[in-house]
């Protein structure tokens, strides 16, 4: 058996595919031949993203407007994607809200509950809808985007830590349950990644402090002790998703791949 990175003939669904990491993952999978469906809540954003994705290859691109907080909408969206190409091979859960920044002990309970529902339970909704339809002949994949907050203590992001830790646990249990069907379930925990959301935050902080956005980023790198000395590019996280989606990862399941530039420093 020849193992490779190409995804020709396969269909991928990426939630949150209209921007950020979801868009980067969609571009990476599409560039390797996958037919890509991107799901999100805003039609205009999805259409703009679809044009960007389509420019990178010849495979088709589909936009699906749906909210991962709504069971019926998720079920209908997954069925639509499956019917589009007559198959569904890869599901990437990337849709997530902006999570609150505060001490965990001071976080409003509703904020925590809403964050868990929007990300962790949202991922479960999508996975649950996809599993009956996803290919069982060796190409079935579910990839969940978690976050390094699940593994590393960073001040004032306890809500994100709790949510992402739940995603890691969800991934492990889904992997065990899907293994008899030959479906692989894994997660990625990105480190500090320079998406547009973070660029906007850096610009705002820089303006308030009278420094440059680059100085803001460099200060965070130093304070967090990121060993590679820089932020990740979205395409570097997407490359990890491409690996997990491909035939190079046929013996990998139940794992959380930490793509963090050396932010995490566990000995084992």
From TrEMBL:
Top-rank lineage group of the source organism: Bacteria
Q: Which InterPro entries match?
A: NAD(P)-bd_dom_sf (IPR036291), SDR (IPR050259), SDR_fam (IPR002347)
Q: Which Gene3D superfamilies match?
A: NAD(P)-binding Rossmann-like Domain (3.40.50.720)
Which Pfam family is one of this chain's hits?
A: adh_short_C2
**The family this protein is said to belong to:** Belongs to the short-chain dehydrogenases/reductases (SDR) family.
Recorded protein name is: SDR family oxidoreductase
This chain's source organism reads Streptomyces spinosisporus
């Amino acid at each position: 058996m020849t193992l490779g990175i190409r995804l020709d003939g396969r269909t991928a669904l990426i939630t949150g595919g209209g921007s950020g990491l979801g868009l980067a993952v969609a571009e990476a999978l599409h560039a390797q031949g996958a037919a890509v469906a991107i799901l999100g809540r805003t039609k205009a954003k999805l259409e703009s993203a679809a044009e960007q994705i389509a420019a990178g290859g010849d495979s088709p691109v589909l936009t699906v407007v749906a909210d991962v907080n709504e069971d019926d909408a998720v079920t209908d969206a997954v069925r639509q994607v499956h019917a589009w190409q007559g198959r569904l091979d890869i599901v990437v859960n990337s849709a997530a809200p902006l999570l609150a920044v505060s001490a965990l002990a001071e976080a409003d309970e509703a904020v925590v509950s809403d964050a868990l529902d929007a990300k962790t339970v949202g991922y479960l909704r999508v996975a649950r809808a996809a599993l009956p339809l996803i290919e069982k002949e060796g190409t079935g994949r579910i990839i969940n985007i978690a976050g390094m907050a699940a593994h590393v203590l960073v001040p004032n992001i306890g809500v994100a830590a709790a949510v992402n830790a739940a995603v890691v646990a969800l991934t492990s249990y889904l992997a065990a349950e899907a293994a008899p069907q030959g479906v692989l379930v894994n997660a990625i925990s990105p480190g500090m990644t320079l998406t547009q959301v973070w660029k906007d935050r850096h610009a705002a902080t820089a303006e308030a402090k009278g420094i440059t956005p680059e100085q803001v980023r460099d200060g965070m790198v130093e304070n967090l002790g990121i060993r590679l000395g820089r932020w990740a590019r979205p395409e570097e996280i997407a490359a990890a998703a491409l690996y997990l989606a491909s035939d190079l990862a046929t013996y990998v399941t139940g794992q959380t791949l930490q793509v963090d530039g050396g932010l995490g420093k566990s000995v084992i």
